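Suppose you are handed a protein chain with no further information: no name, no annotation, nothing but its sequence. What can you learn? This example shows the usual starting point.
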Amino acid sequence: MGREKYHEINILFNLGDYKMALKGDRVEHLTDISFFKADAVIERGLIVAHLTGGSGAAMDDSLAQVDTVSSTGDLAAGLILNDVVNLDLTRQQYNAHKDEVQLGGKVTLLRRGTVVTNQISGTPVIGEKVHFDATGKLTTASSPAGKSMAVGRWLGIKDKDGYAKVEINIV
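A reasonable first move is to predict its three-dimensional structure. Written in C-alpha cells, the prediction is:
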C-alpha cells in the first residue's frame, strides 16, 4: 500500500473517532438499565429526562421511558451511554459493539461516574457545577437562562477536539 493511501485511510479513521460523543476514558459507578427510549434517535452523551414511569416492580415495564430533554426545567434521569438508532432490521443488524440500541429498546443511563465528552455547550470551568441546556448538552452553571438541575461538576476544560472530563452525579 502506498504512503498516500495509508495517510488517507488514517485520516478517515481518525475523523470517525472524532465524531464520538463519549470517549472510552470513563468510570461508571452507578448505571441504570430499567428505561426504554421509544420516541426518537439520540446520540450518546446527552442528558435524558423521565417521560413516563412504571411501578418499578418489573425491569421490563414498557411504561418506564426516557426522552430527550425539552427544557431546562426537566428532571434529569441520567446521561445516555448508547446511541439510539432506527434501523430497518430486515436489511441490517444493529451493532452492539458500537453500543447501538434499536429505537424502542432498553438504554443504559449513567447516574454516577466520570466521562470525557464533547456534548458540551459553553466553556467548562474546573470545579463548577454542570447543568444541561434544552437540547441535553452539558453546560456551565451560568449559561442557561432558566437554570437546570445540577447533574455533576467539571473535572477539566475543553481540549483541542472539544472534549472535557465531567463527573456525573444524578442520584
